[in-house]
Specification:
Strand content: 35-45%
Protein name: N-acetyltransferase domain-containing protein
Largest sheet: 7 strands, mixed
Order of helices and strands: EEEHEHEEE
CATH superfamily: Gcn5-related N-acetyltransferase (GNAT)
CATH class: Alpha Beta
Radius of gyration: 15 Å
Helix content: 10-25%
Number of domains: 1
Strand order of the largest sheet: 5-6-4-3-2-1-7
CATH topology: Aminopeptidase
Pfam families: Acetyltransf_1
Number of helices: 2
Keywords: Acyltransferase, Transferase
InterPro entries: Acyl_CoA_acyltransferase, Bact_Acetyltransf, GNAT_dom
CATH architecture: 3-Layer(aba) Sandwich
GO molecular function: acyltransferase activity, transferring groups other than amino-acyl groups
C-alpha cells in the first residue's frame, strides 16, 4: 500500500534478528527518515526480545547493532519511544540514550487502557564506537 509507512523494499526500513539455537529470539527495526530535512534521522521503531531470552544482553546487542548500522548509513540522530516504567526504558537509559520526557495517555494496550510513553534520543555524531555484535545479530532478516 503506497504511503503506508516505511518499507523494506524501498530501503526505508531495516530489520535485524538475534538468533539462539537457530531460532529468532529478538528483533530490532530501524526506520529511516525520507523527508529532505530529516535524512540524518532514524527511529528505533521496534526492539523486542522473547521473554525467555531476556537477561542475556540480547536487547543491548540488538540496539548497539542498529546504532552502528545507522551510523554507517550516515544517520547522526536516533529517536525512539517506549512505555514509561517498562524494562525497555531502563535498557535505553543504561545504553546511553537521553530521556526527553513523557507523553501521558499515548498508547493503548490490547484492552484499551492508556499508558504514558517516554521519548528518548541518541546522537551518533560522537566517536562512532559500538560493541561488536555480529555473533549475536544476523543482518538482515
Amino acid at each position: 500500500m503506497a504511503g503506508a509507512g516505511p518499507t523494506v523494499a524501498e530501503g526505508e526500513l531495516l530489520v535485524w534478528a538475534a538468533r539462539l539455537d537457530g531460532r529468532i529470539v529478538g528483533i530490532v527495526q530501524l526506520d529511516l527518515e525520507t523527508k529532505p530535512n530529516g535524512r540524518h534521522r532514524g527511529e528505533i521503531a521496534k526492539l523486542m526480545v522473547h521473554r525467555r531470552a531476556r537477561g542475556q544482553g540480547l536487547g543491548k546487542a540488538l540496539l548497539a547493532h542498529a546504532e552502528r548500522e545507522a551510523a554507517a548509513l550516515g544517520v547522526s540522530l536516533l529517536v525512539l519511544d517506549t512505555q514509561s516504567g517498562s524494562g525497555a526504558e531502563q535498557l535505553y537509559r543504561a545504553a546511553g540514550w537521553n530521556r526527553v520526557g513523557v507523553i501521558p495517555d499515548y498508547a493503548a494496550d490490547p484492552v484499551g487502557e492508556l499508558h504514558p510513553t517516554t521519548i528518548f534520543y541518541r546522537s551518533l555524531g560522537g566517536n562512532g564506537q559500538f560493541p561488536d555484535t555480529t555473533e549475536i545479530v544476523n543482518s538482515p532478516v
